[in-house]
Amino acid sequence: MLIKLMGLFSHLAGAREIEIKVEGKRRVGDILREVIPRFDEIRDKIIIVNGKVASEDVEVGDNDIVKLMPVLSGG
Q1: Would you tell me which CATH number, out of the four given (3.10.20.30, 1.20.1600.10, 3.40.50.300, 3.40.50.360), belongs to the domain 2-70?
Q2: 2-20, pLDDT tens digit by residue?
Q3: Any residues with CB less than 8 A from the CB of 9 and at least 6 apart, and which?
């Protein structure tokens, strides 16, 4: 599985992309917690799985592409 990280998440993980092996199907939120320090401290985030916005409960496998970005606000 390929995880593409943007913004603060790439800083926390120390990489813009992480490639990991996923056996079977797992929840994307569980995987992200394992590879990104302080993942749960960032409350507002967007998870995209294979080009579609997804929740942390979506199951992913080894061939999926996940993109993770923080929600930015401002005015």
Answers
A1: 3.10.20.30
A2: 999 999 999 999 999 999 9
A3: 36, 39, 42, 45, 68, 69, 70
